[in-house]
Amino acid sequence: MADTGSASVIRAAIEWPTVAVAALIYGAFGMLTWHYHALAWWLVLPLAAYLIAWHGSLQHEVVHDHPTSWRWLNRLLVLPSLWLWLPFELYRESHQAHHRNEFLTDPLQDPESYYLSAAQWQQLPPWRQALRWSYNTVLGRL
Predict the structure, then answer these.
(1) Which domain holds residue 71?
(2) DSSP 37-53
(3) What's the total number of domains in the chain?
């Protein structure tokens, strides 16, 4: 009788759908990068933005120790970072600080909150109000 215990532990320790998403993100981004010259810019730009945003979601999963129980392997899944302006380690540290903060559910104190009080909102110039408003739209979230 074969011992299948260790194989089932490995299957349980790895969230394969998330690993598949990582492969899909990098594969699609690689294909888009390779073939960008054959595509219209107005198609490349939103596709690249979508893939980069999706990669950000994947990085968030890795910060929370998914999709495997091995931190070193999780980090390999998000390197290289498609967020060229924010290295993964910097994002990881700032996001974990957000969870260590006693003000996690206080929108005025949470380090990842974009909430403004009515007084703070009124002090913003109109262009900054418009920019902040856009953050709350679907396109602003991408």
Answers:
(1) 5-100
(2) GGS-HHHHHHHHHHHHH
(3) 2
